[in-house]
Amino acid sequence: MRIAYLILTHKLPSQLRILIDLCQHPEADFYIHLDKKVNLKAFSDLLTEENIFFIQKRVRCRWGTYSLVQATINGLKEIQSKGGYDYINFISGQDLPLVSGEDFSNFLEKNKGHEFMSCKPYDKMDPWWKKNESRFLKYNFQNWMLPGKFRMQFLFNRVMPERKMPLGMVLSGESQWFCITTVLTDYLLQFLDTNPDYVRFFKYVWGADEFIFSTIAFNSPFRPALAGILHYIDWDGPSDGHPKTLGVADLEDAFASGKIFARKFDITHDLDAVDQVANKVK
Q1: Which long-range contacts link 197-204 to residues 24+ away (Cβ below 8 Å)?
Q2: Which residues pair with 121 in a beta bridge?
Q3: Distance separating alpha carbons of residues 280 and 256, to the nearest angstrom
Q4: Which of 172, 173, 171, 175 is nearest to 259 (CA)?
């Protein structure tokens, strides 16, 4: 089972080293998209490994913008150009595995053909969607680098009707992270390359990375193979749009969840939590 890890990161090189060491497996390769704003030299020690690569076409990433989608697309295309993989596992540099690399490979072998992606279809009565629907029903100008853009956004939405999904598709999503076959990856990339109206729609969606790939998969022949994401994530922390940073007190729940990965961790926040995960997974 050949696995390509696509890792999106922008900080904490020593923690990234721990993540990769814990995920190592004879048939695993690691592709790191490092935010273009970050100096590559801080991560240069990772280049000593034969199965660790840095994505060449880097993007300056800003939270909530289409830049995160573009960084993901660039990574997926570079991995696909190498060929030979069964799955691409897209994770963050602040994730940690809850099982060994061998156990993860065995899990994918046993569940071969499943697509691990969050594809929750839009339901206007669902509380989560009610809270987030302005992200796609309204125009969001977060990609613009202009003074007064949010004032313009407010005025624009005052006169414009609610936005509608292109191509009659059902919006779907919830999480940006996924572990999918390279067959589905090819389908996603081809769809994006041949449907500019779809891409244009999502450039005005706040946090488009949480919807753009999932929506394609949900409206595709791959829908019967869709399964949930492999991550344990705690959203009960501060309501600032970010998941809770996990500490030692959260580890029991994380390991009991049956998930393969957990996020997010920060060695500057709780080094003991990272060490305890590492000692258990090794």
Answers
A1: 197/166, 197/167, 198/166, 198/167, 198/169, 201/163, 201/165, 201/166, 202/66, 202/69, 203/66, 203/143, 204/139, 204/140, 204/141, 204/143, 204/163
A2: 172
A3: 13
A4: 175
Question: The CATH number of the domain where 87 resides is what?
Answer: 3.90.550
For residue range 167-218, list pLDDT tens digits in order: 999 999 999 999 999 999 999 999 999 999 999 999 999 999 999 999 999 9
Residue 48 has pLDDT above 90, yes or no: no
Residue 267 lies in a domain: yes
Based on the structure, what is the number of domains in the chain? 1
Global model pTM greater than 0.85: yes
44: left (phi over 0), alpha (psi -120 to 50) or beta: alpha
Q: What range does the domain containing 262 cover?
A: 3-112+230-281
> For residue 144, how far is the Cα from the chain centroid?
22
CA dist 144 and 155 (Å) reads 15
Helix (H) or strand (E) holding 194: helix 182-194
235-257 pLDDT, tens per residue? 886 666 789 999 999 999 999 99
